[in-house]
Amino acid sequence: MNGRSEGGGFRIAPSARVDDGALDICWIDPVGPGGFLRYVRAVRRGTHERIPVFRSWRVDRLRVESEAAIRYHLDGEYRELPEGEPLEVEVDSGRVRLVG
To answer: In sequence order, what are the residues at sequence separation of 6 or more whose Cβ sits closer than 8 angstroms to the Cβ of residue 86?
Structure first.
């Protein structure tokens, strides 16, 4: 993520900043069928970072390799890479400048 929240007010990465040159990576350990529903309130409030099944990192680049297909969420869209294809994401800091 490069911002603090997603649609519906979910504060997925409450510490994220769009101007810090970093990506905030959020990981949820497998919680079983329906298990995530138990944590929805915490995610909406942005307090989920204290729950052990949630982990996060701040990085400037990321590479994920897997023999299985990789499903991921990026910029409001769900996507999937074919089996064996790595996921690579990199920040291009300062690339877009907004002038008001």
So the answer is: 63, 64, 65, 66, 70
Q: Which two tokens stand for residue 10?
A: 């979910």
CA dihedral in degrees (27, 21, 78, 54; nearest 10)?
10
Residue 87 CB-density burial (10 A; 0-12 exposed, 13-18 middle, 19+ buried): middle
Of the candidates 32, 1, 31, which has an alpha carbon nearest to the alpha carbon of residue 17?
1
The pLDDT of residue 28 is 80
Does residue 67 register a pLDDT over 90? yes
pTM of structure: 0.65
